[in-house]
Amino acid sequence: MESLLSIAVGVLFASGIYMMLRRNLIKFIFGFILMGNGINLLIFTVGRLTKGNPPLVPEDAYTMEGAVITNFANPLPQALILTAIVIGFGFVAFSLVLLYRTYTVENTLDTDKLQEDVLPEVIV
Amino acid sequence: MNPLLTKWLVLLPILIPFVSGSFLLLFRRQVTENSQNLQRQRNIGIFTGVLQLIAALLLFQQVLTHGILNVQSGNWPVPFGISFVADGLGSLMVLIVAAMALAVNVFGLSDITESRQNFSFQAIYLFLIAALSGAFLTGDLFNLYVWFEILLISSFVLLSLGNERMQLRGAVNYVLINLVASSLFLAATGLLYGHTGTLNMADIAVRLSEVPTGITNVLAILFLVAFGMKAALFPLFFWLPPAYPAPPVAISAIFAGLLTKVGVYALIRVFTMFFVYDIEFTHTILLWLSGLTIIVGVLSAIVQDDIRKIISFHLIAQVGYMIAGLAFYTDLGLRATIFYFIEDIVVMTNLFLLAGLIARYGGSFKLSQLGNLYRDRPYLAILFALSAFSLGGIPPLSGFWAKLMIIQASFDKGQLLFTLILLFGAFVTLFSMARIWREAFLKKTDEAYEHYAQQPELFDGTASSRRNLYTPVIALTALTLVISFFPQPFYRFSANVSAELLEPSRYINHMFSEANTKSPFADKYAEDTKSDKTKESNETKEGDSE
After folding, report:
1. How far is B373 from B371, CA to CA, in rounded Å?
2. B207-235 burial: b if 16+ Cβ within 10 Å, else e
3. How far apart, in whole angstroms, are the C-alpha atoms of residue B405 and residue B411?
4. How many Å apart are CA B119 and CA B158, to the nearest integer?
């Protein structure tokens, strides 16, 4: 199961980075979403996969002296992923609005064209 | 000391701006309706700044007398739950944040236009300050990530508030690169969690010693890239020059003073607590990156025409100097880094504010269009000269002491080539500052004079706006002068912090002390089980007797 998820993480990262390197900035956002999902899956995988057990530590199973019990699910990665998903959603929403705003001003979202020099601003 | 008081003191620098910001956001609709409410909102913003400064001072004083303080959220014992820790470096940074935030907010009263203030500028500014304080006080890696994100989303809004073309372009650069940086940070945190099974910084530091160096090196590079983007290290700084000059100077000033420094702070934390097992590898990379940052930063600065861009490139070069001290990983090097931190944040913030004043009176940010300012504004010229030449490292100004310490540390390390780079950077910085001085202040030009003769309201402004604009600049210049002429207390404090950073065991031992690791319910639990047992034994006795 771990190796399958690792491959999925790799594919998500690769496609995300490929999309991020495109010239169109909207595709960059899609790439970011893909990579974000890859990272969430990564955190989930490194947090020890357990099948069919609730995240409850049996009362008599855990001692401070270091007896480690592994047959319960690890709830922490899920809490982390939930936080990361919410934050990622906020970022995507903000970036889309920003890109839309930029598009209405510049009439393009092509990174090469956005590089052209800006006219000097009137200050103060 | 009263433990309850400690808890509140550690949390107050985060809570004060956060609560106040939320309050302002809630009443935004009513505020936009008339200007009296806008004024009220500004007053609340300034008042919050003062409260924050008092809280930060109290916290700093407590940390000075009692050492490291910490709070566990939800009273969880140490490796569990989120810790907030105020150690020397953290409390120092919170104090600097509070001071700079207040100064810049006062400047912003007259610099940020009303239309921007109407879009709840104050609330978002306060969220930014809360997130900065949170990032400096947290003792949990994932929590650090969350504070970074709050900080980023507030800075995105501040950067694009106003929707000017230049701002939008800068914001696109800044937002997209930061999306990548935070993704990398999150991925690196996930992997670190996978190897250590914990997110508490003290606990990670302990457990990383058992992880093979090959893996820690990979993690170190991931963190270096993620934080290097935020700190604007070479070659990850290309987002900064278009972004920082774009918004109004008050916002640029707070970004320049504090935002890149969060990245530097995170690098210092990570490379003194976590990744110290293969210094040959990690810190050598840091060293050469910092050298290249200095060279590219100062050389790019001398070809710019816009004052804000010149200062932005110097900001990048200064980050190089700070990282150099960290890369030496010696006592003197870290002392220099901390001293540089204190000194540079004040000077950088002040230089951006001064650039705003120059543009206000000279009519432009471009050196080619400026002139006559020494004749017309001699006091402004003196204020600018003090900060600019401190940046250039002229004795006895504060920048000189900082650069002297770094160069001394470099000599101690036997890095002769690197010392030459440091000296070269200082000379070019001085040249660049002299260039601004010559072009903007000494040059005689008719063009510039005509420009502001047409706009008399810029030339003088009202008395209250002059007061708002000059008070923070004078206060920050005074602070620079204090650091310049009385560097001893700052130096001594830097030495304390450096000792703390070189010996993370102090931090770790504090976190794992008896008081922190003991669950507050342990006694109760013990009592319960005891009473259960006695009950059981009673029952068995009763059973026996029957």
Report:
1. 6
2. bbeebeeeebbebbbbbbbbbbbbbbbbe
3. 10
4. 10
Rounded average pLDDT per 10-residue block, chain A, 124 residues? 90 94 91 93 86 73 57 83 92 92 85 66 43
Segment 42-81 of chain A within 8 Å of chain B by CB: 42-43, 45-47, 76-77, 80
Which residue on chain A is closest to B80 by alpha carbon?
A76
User: Residue B83, SS3?
Assistant: strand
Cβ–Cβ < 8 Å for B400, B422 = no
Are B257 and B281 spatial neighbours (Cβ–Cβ below 8 Å)?
A: no
Cβ atoms of residues B520 and B75 within 8 Å: yes
Residues of B with CB under 8 A from a CB of A: 142, 146, 149, 152-153, 156-157, 160, 163-166, 168-169, 171-172, 175-176, 179-180, 182-183, 186-187, 190-191, 193-195, 199, 359-360, 363-366, 458
Closest CA to B325 of B291, B349, B275, B295: B291
Contact with chain B for residue A101, Cβ under 8 A: yes
Tokens of B353: 């504010």
ipTM, two decimals, is: 0.89
